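Trying the structure run again after the queue cleared.
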Amino acid sequence: MAVTDNRPFYLNLLKIRLPVTGFVSILHRVSGLLMFIAIPGAVFLFDLSLQSAEGFKQAQQILSLPVLQLISLILLWSIIHHLIAGIRFLLTDFDIGLEKAQSIRYAWLVFILEAIVFVSLIVGVFL
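Done. Tokens:
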């Protein structure tokens, strides 16, 4: 007997409308990956800065490049997002915020807190 298969054979990921909780989850994974990828560069710059006073100046010159400043801002965002979203996920492990309305509220709270912390750190560093 033939069974009809109602599953889609082509799934256009650009047409799927993800809820805000899905964006928090995906960005949490992306931020973790960015931090992992940045480890070798951070270790290299840290090692260079500890070699001598000249190495420290060289590391400062490297970090003053506009491209690396942009990368630093992206990494700062990833650390902040990963921390705040990670706290949200830890709360779900303790059965806090599992209801749909609470989950959506906490996901928006992650984005709001992340923006506040990110902007305040940028203002504190660059101004």
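DSSP finds four helices and no strands in the chain. Worth checking whether this holds up in the mutant runs.
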